Inverse folding.
């Protein structure tokens, strides 16, 4: 990946229902405006194409929300606009996030025809009680069928998201789920522990005592690495596993501090030393794009020391770590190395195997 490469992120903030743990920018019940929203996204791409001048776009990611609520013609129009206004690599990774309830044969055939070449499907769990507790719309069987549809419509680069350490979930049940999922021929898995965001419905359920978060997440982390490792998945980022070559190009770009242009309501961008965020409100976003082609409400210039610090924070999420020449030396860093929390080798610095699962404690000291 050269220095002048970049990623494009398209935010699709629509969902059929809000999951209880969700702290993403997603809004239920607004699907009727999707067509107009797509017009705004295309308007934003057109008006801001100059920001990626001289850069090659190596990845494009439809994230959400639930991007699989888009019709294939919506995806096709957005991809046509990208091809017209950006310099896209011929091998560009084009990912779409999907939720099982909106996966259908015609829709995924259409996505394939439009140029999408990677799908990330939000399975989360193969236990119906856990899915109901999380507020997910789909059942475990629907999730299994959706993966079949995705493969049968011609996709090979397929990833699934799963959540562990759910209330009432035993370690054995989690491992059984992983053992099933590895038989599906996926090339990538994202395994996240359930976290309780402050402004989520889940936070209210925890404070009212309706559910109790687990405290043994480290065991889940280790069991995940061991189980997936046996089936050829390499643990390349703290929450992500891939069959070699199946790593997500787009998300690797964030951890490697590559430039990205975010398009859509609430999308964030970072290009060179500038970072900004769009307004979150869907209506506000569409109005601003119609008026000026821009919807930025907050921007900042990144100082060199901020950049070096963020490169360290993000790079330590990767198994391979971060290039030492990209970060600032510090006594705290040296102390973490001498105490065995971090390792230095081949010009890189990375978390030790034992301390990688405890990355947050490492980061707190930097
Ligand atoms: S599907 Fe994803 S984005 Fe939508 S509400 Fe659920 S967690 Fe949030």
């Amino acid at each position: 990946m050269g220095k002048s490469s970049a990623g494009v992120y398209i935010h699709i903030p629509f969902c059929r229902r809000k999951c209880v743990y969700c702290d993403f920018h997603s809004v239920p019940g607004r699907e009727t405006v999707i067509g107009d929203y797509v017009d705004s996204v295309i308007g934003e791409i057109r008006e801001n194409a100059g920001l990626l001048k001289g850069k090659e776009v190596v990845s494009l990611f439809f994230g959400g929300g639930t991007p699989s609520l888009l019709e294939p013609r919506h995806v096709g129009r957005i991809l046509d606009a990208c091809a017209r206004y950006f310099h896209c690599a011929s091998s560009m990774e084009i990912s779409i996030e999907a939720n099982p309830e909106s996966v259908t044969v015609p829709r995924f055939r259409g996505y394939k025809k439009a140029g999408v070449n990677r799908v990330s499907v939000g399975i989360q769990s193969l236990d119906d009680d856990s899915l109901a507790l999380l507020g997910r719309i789909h059942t475990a069987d629907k999730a299994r069928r959706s993966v079949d549809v995705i493969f049968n419509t011609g996709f090979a680069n397929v990833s699934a998201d799963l959540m562990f350490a759910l209330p009432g979930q035993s370690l054995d049940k989690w491992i059984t789920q992983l053992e099933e999922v590895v038989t599906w021929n996926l090339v990538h898995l994202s395994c996240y522990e359930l976290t309780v965001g402050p402004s989520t419905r889940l936070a209210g359920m925890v404070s009212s005592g309706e559910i109790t978060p687990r405290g043994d997440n480290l065991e889940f982390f280790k069991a995940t690495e061991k189980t997936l490792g046996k089936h050829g998945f390499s643990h390349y980022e703290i929450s992500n596993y891939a069959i070699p070559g199946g790593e997500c190009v787009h998300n690797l770009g964030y951890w490697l501090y590559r430039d990205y242009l975010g398009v859509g309501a609430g999308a964030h961008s970072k290009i060179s030393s500038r970072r900004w965020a769009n307004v979150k409100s869907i209506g506000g976003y569409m109005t601003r794009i119609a008026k000026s082609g821009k919807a930025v409400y907050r921007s900042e210039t990144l100082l060199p020391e901020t950049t070096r610090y963020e490169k360290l924070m993000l790079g330590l999420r990767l198994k391979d770590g971060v290039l030492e020449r990209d970060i600032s030396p510090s006594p705290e860093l040296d102390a973490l190395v001498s105490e065995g929390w971090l390792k230095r080798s081949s010009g890189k610095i990375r978390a030790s195997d034992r301390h990688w699962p405890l990355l947050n404690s490492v980061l707190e000291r930097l």
Residues 15, 18-19, 22, 24, 26, 64-66, 99, 122 surround iron/sulfur cluster (CB under 6 Å). The chain has a mean pLDDT of 95. The longest helix spans residues 34-48. The CA atoms of residues 93 and 241 lie 17 Å apart.
